[in-house]
């Protein structure tokens, strides 16, 4: 055992180890004992034991293996004390034992990496959609229940109830802790990817609150996507999702001004973009697009790559972006994709062409309450000089926008198209 740190330094080391090892530790315990509640409880007890022993003895050379051994012993002790609990787990263990253990991975050969099983369990289609992301953050990212509650903007008590119900569903429905077979994987993997992308999207463009971005949440999703990429290196859509996240997150520092205000793509200082992250994302795009028909995330990554490679908005390869959105409309048709396609057409062919496509989407249910739709209409109407209509659209977007930076931006745009008030000489 290596004496690395003491006191507060050890506490920080334990926290760092816990963040890195939590998902692997929990997945290994769930695979061994077949019960998520038991796994979480003994994992927490192992961390508590580390906080007691490591300040005196130093952080072990293989902290993950130490935590796993300690947690397994505590689980066995608990099962010996509770025979009824042990009998119930024995039934669940039959399902877990049908799946061979994953081969050791990473630096700790004593701690097999079984997180892939946990990814698919947390994103199982039998679970309600609103808890899949919460479980993923709780189990694989190691966030506490209050932290998960903050991520999803609900009270901690509400999130605790959701997580308890989800665990009960896993137990009662006998949802297996296993990786889907080759025949199941194409149907199940998109659900896992969607969970990660939803977490990332909320971090990149917060739905409500005082800030435009929640970088901690976006970075957690990115960390989980990296893990998934390591676990499924042959899956092109996993590479596509990771590439998309990297290429979009690379712009994070340029998306807001010093006051936290929204900065549009056309006005961003591209010198602030993270070139290292862009290069990493660009390297994933060819793999995501070759070797078979492209997937939705690979296509979106290619679109993001064209944006990141351009010197400015006006020299961006808009014809290619329009073509890629056309492909995306076939692969994953949705009103939101159609909205983005229309915006790209407006850049290629002019605002009138884009507006015509937007007007065709006016009746789409999914765009009601989606402020980017009236915001896009308002922008094109303003560019066409149709200021009263633009003002009405900006007011509609303002009523729907969820973050203060977006509302402040829309108020500025609205003041630019509204007629001056005769009383004050300013926009309404």
Descriptive overview:
By secondary structure, the chain is an all-alpha fold. The chain folds into four domains: 1-106, no CATH class; 114-234, no CATH class; 237-310, no CATH class; 334-428, Alpha Horseshoe (Serine Threonine Protein Phosphatase 5, Tetratricopeptide repeat), CATH 1.25.40. The chain is built from 19 helices and no strands. The chain has helices at 8-33, 36-57, 63-81, 83-97, 115-122, 129-139, 145-151, 156-172, 185-204, 215-231, 236-249, 275-289, 296-309, 318-331, 335-349, 351-359, 372-383, 387-400, 404-417. The longest helix has 26 residues, at 8-33. The radius of gyration is 25 Å and the shape is elongated. Residues 1-7, 94-110 and 421-428 have low confidence and may be disordered.
Strand content: under 5%
Can you give the helix content as a percent range? 55-70%
Alpha plus pi helix count: 19
Low-pLDDT runs of 5+ residues are 1-7, 94-110, 421-428
Q: Helix and strand string, N-terminal first?
A: HHHHHHHHHHHHHHHHHHH
**Roughly how many Å is the radius of gyration?**
25 Å
Shape: elongated
* Number of distinct beta strands: 0
């Amino acid at each position: 055992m290596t004496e690395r740190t003491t006191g507060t330094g050890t506490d920080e080391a334990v926290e760092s180890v816990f963040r890195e090892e939590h998902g692997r530790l929990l997945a290994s315990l769930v695979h061994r004992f077949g019960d998520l509640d038991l796994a979480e409880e003994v994992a927490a007890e192992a961390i508590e034991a580390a906080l007691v022993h490591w300040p005196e003895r130093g952080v072990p050379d293989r902290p993950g293996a130490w935590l796993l051994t300690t947690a397994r012993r505590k689980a066995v002790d608990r099962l010996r004390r509770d025979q009824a609990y042990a009998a119930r787990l024995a039934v669940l263990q039959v399902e877990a034992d049908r799946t061979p253990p994953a081969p050791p991975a990473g630096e700790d050969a004593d701690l097999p990496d079984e997180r892939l099983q946990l990814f698919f369990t947390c994103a199982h289609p039998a679970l309600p959609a609103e808890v899949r992301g919460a479980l993923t953050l709780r189990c694989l990212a190691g966030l506490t229940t209050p932290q998960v509650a903050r991520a999803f903007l609900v009270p901690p008590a509400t999130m605790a109830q959701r997580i308890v119900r989800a665990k009960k569903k896993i137990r009662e429905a006998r949802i297996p802790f296993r990786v889907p077979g080759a025949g199941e994987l194409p149907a199940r993997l998109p659900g896992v990817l969607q969970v990660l992308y939803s977490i990332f999207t909320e971090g990149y463009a917060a739905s409500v609150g005082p800030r435009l971005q929640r970088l901690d949440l976006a970075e957690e999703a990115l960390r989980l996507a990296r893990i998934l990429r390591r676990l499924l290196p042959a899956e092109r859509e996993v590479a596509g999702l990771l590439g998309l996240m990297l290429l979009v997150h690379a712009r994070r520092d340029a998306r807001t001004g010093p006051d936290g205000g929204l900065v549009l793509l056309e006005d961003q200082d591209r010198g602030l973009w993270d070139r290292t992250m862009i290069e990493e994302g660009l390297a994933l795009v060819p793999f995501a697009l070759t070797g078979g028909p492209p997937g939705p995330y690979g296509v979106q990554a290619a679109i993001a790559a064209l944006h990141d490679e351009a010197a400015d908005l006006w020299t961006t390869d808009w014809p290619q972006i329009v073509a890629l959105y056309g492909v995306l409309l076939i692969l994953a048709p949705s009103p939101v994709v159609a909205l983005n396609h229309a915006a790209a057409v407006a850049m290629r062919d002019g605002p009138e062409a884009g507006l015509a496509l937007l007007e065709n989407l006016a009746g789409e249910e999914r765009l009601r309450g989606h402020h980017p739709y009236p915001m896009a209409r308002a922008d094109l109407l303003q560019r066409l000089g149709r200021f009263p209509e633009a003002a009405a659209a900006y007011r509609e977007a303002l009523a729907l926008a969820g973050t203060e930076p977006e509302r402040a931006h829309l108020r500025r745009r609205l003041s630019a198209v509204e007629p001056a008030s005769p009383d004050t000489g300013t926009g309404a």
